[in-house]
Request: fold
Amino acid sequence: MKQEKKVILLAGPTASGKSKLALKLAKDIDGEIVNADSMQIYKEVSVLTSRPNEQDIKISKHHLYGFNSVKEKFSTGQWLKMVSKKIEELWNVDKIPIVVGGSGLYFKALTDGLVKIPDIPNNLRSEVRSLHSKLGQKDFFKQLTKIDPLVKNFILPSDSQRSMRSYEVKKFTKKSLFELIKETKPNFKSKVFKKIFINMPKEELYEKIEKRVEKMFNDGAIEEVNFFFKMRVYKELSANKIIGINEIKSHIKGKLTLDDTKKLVAQKTRQYAKRQFTWSRGHMKSWEMIYSPDIKDLFEKAINIIS
Reply:
């Protein structure tokens, strides 16, 4: 008899123990692990992104890790297509997908769907930006509300980025961005998702971050960054946002001591964790928040939600 179709979603701030819990769950419920971390997709950067190691991969199959070059673009839309296909594949062989990561936007795309906006021509984008520079945000927003009154309900008058985006979408598609959002549907029914967020207390998390940073440097973070810069990755590409890349580059150039570099990487990681907590408060209200310092207890809490 085929088991009930379900997808375990396991989120939480960086260094909160998501991967450890995912491995325990995979062994227990006959699941396989699927990546939902936008930085763990890169094949050339495994240390700084804390990608699962060979030992982890022996315990359970891992999917969508380390497949994309740092020199290539990769979007949330591409990930959504890949993860949706992978979920279906795992269901077809009676495996439970355990989607694990810290990228809130990936989870939102999977549970809510992704707005389908056609590519806006560059000449129109330039026109919109020129108009914004000429008018200033206040008058630009007034003009935007004339062509798209819906924006008043969704955008703050001071939000220039979203104002320009809404303007170009309306001009190009003749539809409000917010009509397109309303039409967006997810690929799966909401009942298949079991949504878990590891809500670790900040003091404990910050201790874990310190230890993780130390481990990264012991595991070859400096060598990894050296290799990254030899690849001459375009500055505009997202791989440059990996925490540690620019900090370690400053150390290699002699601008920072090793100790100061470690402190700075830890600080940037703490700031990232804060943003993840903020995202969870705004976008993950329907998720089950769990925590225990004991992995067995944490596992039991997760199993109670999944069952």
